[in-house]
What we know:
This protein is mainly α. The protein has helices at residues 2-22, 32-56, 60-79; strands at 24-25, 83-84. It has a single domain (2-84), classed as Substrate Binding Domain Of Dnak, Chain:A, Domain 2 (Up-down Bundle). The protein has a two-stranded antiparallel sheet. Helix 2 (32-56) packs antiparallel against helix 3 (60-79). It is elongated, with a radius of gyration of 14 Å.
Amino acid sequence: xxxxxxxxxxxxxxxxxxxxxxxxxxxxxxxxxxxxxxxxxxxxxxxxxxxxxxxxxxxxxxxxxxxxxxxxxxxxxxxxxxxxxxxxxxxxxx
Length: 94
């Protein structure tokens, strides 16, 4: 079981980092939607940072939860049209 948790934690951490690198804000600046996109990105980055903190503290359960929450925020932003992502990516549920 611990090996599975470690593998999944690593995979989700990498997936969130890759997703953040791939997602570009798609809505015009100086609009409420742009502000929302920035907030979604900030939340995803904060959860990535939290996950790295928990992983370093040998707390893989909370690390995995943080990575998962961050990914969920970003994926939701993509589905709402706040972000553009490459068509060939399989990172998002577009």
